[in-house]
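Q: Make up one entry.
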Amino acid sequence: MIRVVTGTSTGVGKTVATAALAARAVARGQQVVVVKPVQTGIADGDSDAAEIHRLTGCAVQEYTGLDHPLAPDAAARVQGVTLPPVTEYADRIRVLDAFHDLVLVEGAGGLLVRLDDDGGTLLDLAAQTGADAVVVCAAGLGTLNHSELTVRALRERGVDVAGLVIGSWPAEPDLASRCNLGDLPHHTAAPLLARIPEGAGALDRERFTAEVDGWFG
C-alpha cells in the first residue's frame, strides 16, 4: 500500500506524524519504507528522512535534495537545477510498493506545492500511484478551513483520505483546539486518527516507539 502524508501547511508536524505512522506499522510487523521525494534546506542540515529514521529505525529514501529552505520549484530555480518530473518519482515509488507492505510518502509543505518544474504536485503523485492520503493538520484556530480545503482537493482528484492527524497537540489546549477535536472529523468527513503531543519529535527512538500507539484512536 502507498500512502501519502501531506500537511495543511508547512510546520504542522508532518515529519513527526509520518514517523508515528511508520513506527506503528513496524510494530505491527509490516515492512515499511518512507520516501521523501524532494527535500529542501539541505545546506542547513535539514533532512526529514534522517529524522524519521532517527525516531523509528525504519528504511528511508530521499530522492532530490536542494540547498535552500524554499518550495521545491523555487529552491531549484535559485540553485539553477532541473527537478525530475513527478512521473519519475511515481515510477520509483511503485517499484517500492512491490516489496513493502507500506510505502509512506512525505510531501513538502502543503498538498499543492510544486515538486517539479512542470507544476507537478504531491496531489499528482498520489493520483498517479493510486495512493491514499493522511492529512496532518494544526490543532487550533484556522485548522478547519485549511483541513477541509485539503481533503476536498484530494477527493476531487479521486484520492481516498484515510484520516487526519493533529501534528502537535498542545499540553494545555485552548477552547478552539478542544472544539476542533469534534469539528475536524465533522467538517471533513474523515476520521481523526491521532493526536501527537507537542514535543514528540524531541524524544529518543525508544520512547517514541514505546509511546506512539497511545497517540492513536
Summary: The CA atoms of residues 120 and 196 lie 30 Å apart.
